[in-house]
Amino acid sequence: MNLSIKTKKLSIITDVILFLFVVLIFILLIQKLDLPSYNEYEETMALFNSGNYKSVEEENEVYIKKIRNDFGINILYGKEVADYAASVNAVEQYDQNIINNNLKQIYAALQTYPDDVFDIFKSRKYPLYIMIVDKFNNNTLALASRNSLNQYRLFVSNTNKFERAFHHEMFHILEYYMSDKKKNLYANWNDFNPDGFMYESNTSKLDNDYVYTSYSNGENVNMNPYFVTKYSKASDKEDRAEIFAELMIATKKPSYLGEGQNIKKKADEIDASIVENITSNKFPYDDILN
Predict the structure, then answer these.
(1) pTM (predicted TM-score)
(2) Cβ(185)–Cβ(175) under 8 Å?
(3) Helix (H), strand (E), coil (C) string for 71-112
(4) DSSP labels for 108-141?
(5) CA 178/CA 10 separation, integer angstroms
(6) CA distance 165 to 179
(7) Distance in Å from the first CA to the final CA of the chain
(8) Residue 176 — φ and ψ, nearest 5°?
(9) Of the candidates 65, 61, 42, 68, which has an alpha carbon nearest to the alpha carbon of residue 122?
(10) Helix axes of 236-249 and 162-181: crossing angle, nearest 10 degrees
(11) Cα 270 to the center of its chain, rounded Å
(12) pLDDT tens digits for 38-87?
């Protein structure tokens, strides 16, 4: 009888030790993943939904946490980007009101992407840092980069073309990722261009040949263009990013997405690569592209 009691006590103690060990492992994993605690997330959600902020700074911090929680993306600005900004000839942004507006635009833009797009960044294998800057000391509006550790950086400045510039750079980020998954991703891209066409990296030499132009007197100057903007002719990567940006901000179907149009063929190729390498879920442009 005593032996039986001792055995039961030993079993209970063993179970308790195992339970505590599992709890300890869970806590260590949470700390390693740098995930927010449930309380922090609930407080962030409560503030975000209520809009009851004590200051614009507090609202900005809530948006930053929400973007990190929802999309796995880190936002940096001010002193946090000083060294990075210097490396790309940009000026840091410190104005909390401007940052507030930028954060809201970023959050709204990210919401238009299918949810599983962000699995790329949530996996932590390909972390994305969005750097909010005031301006670039040249004609740049935004830019994207990656380093040898596959850390992605997206710099975006305060401009009236903020949303379009953001989507343009997001496609560069997505192309970085897709190119790692599939070599020679766009090997046949030049087949979509005019015979003998060469991209020109010197943007001062770019012209409007083969470029889509707005309607004049009811007729389009270029009835079957190859490029959505003059800047598209700078490189094949810029060509694709410009098309993607136009698709993401389109509110109605432009003429160059009609059947048989050269830009439509390029847009279809971009969409097919995203479906194959990232997600088959719908983007906002699906209704006007298909």
Answers:
(1) 0.82
(2) yes
(3) HCEEEECHHHHHHHHHHCCEEECCCHHHHHHHHHHHHHHHCC
(4) HHHTTS-GGGGHHHHTSSS-EEEEEEEEESSS-S
(5) 55
(6) 21
(7) 78
(8) -55, -50
(9) 68
(10) 130
(11) 16
(12) 455 566 666 566 667 889 999 999 999 999 999 999 999 999 999 999 99
Tokens standing for 201?
Answer: 């990296």
CB 238 within 8 A of CB 231: yes
Long-range pairs of 111-115 with CB within 8 A, sequence gap ≥ 24: 112/248, 112/283, 112/284, 113/170, 113/283, 114/279, 114/281, 114/282, 114/283, 115/281
CB 66 within 8 A of CB 108: no
Q: How many CB atoms lie within 10 A of CB 128?
A: 22
Taking the CB of residue 181, how many other CB atoms lie within 10 A of it? 11
Q: Which two three-digit tokens encode residue 246? A: 């136009």
pLDDT tens, position by position, 138-177: 889 999 999 988 899 999 999 999 999 999 999 999 999 9
